[in-house]
Design goal:
Elements: E1 4-8, H1 16-24, E2 29-36, E3 43-51, H2 54-64, E4 68-69, E5 72-73, E6 75-78
Antiparallel strand pairs: 1-3, 1-6, 2-3, 4-5
Length: 106
């Protein structure tokens, strides 16, 4: 089964298409995305790639990790699952805020 890969230390000029092209040398790419800042649309210097096959995933990690691109040494490893923490939202009362009184309870 193919795994999602984290790709870090990308040049800020790198696009999702550049990422797809770089990884396609090692097998079919299912998806490639450079993460961008919401407000400016500027690259955050990292992204995620998902290869079609497990073999392509292994080949990509072996060949792209520590590869020099735009004067930067890329970091490639298996992406970790998102954890619940992090910022924002406030859905479901998970923000930690609790009102002192409920309506009618004084």
């Amino acid at each position: 089964m193919a795994k999602r890969l984290y790709v870090g230390n990308l040049p800020y000029s790198f696009t999702s298409q550049d990422l797809q092209k770089l990884f396609s040398e090692y097998g079919p790419v299912k998806s490639a995305e450079v993460v961008q800042e919401r407000d400016t649309g500027r690259s955050r210097g990292f992204g995620f790639v998902e290869m079609e096959t497990a073999q392509a995933t292994e080949d990509a990690i072996r060949n792209v990790h520590d590869k020099q691109v735009g004067g930067r040494s890329l970091v490639v490893n298996e992406a970790r699952a998102r954890t619940g923490g992090g910022g924002g939202g406030g859905r479901g009362g998970a923000s930690g805020y609790r009102p002192r009184h409920r309506m009618g309870e004084f």
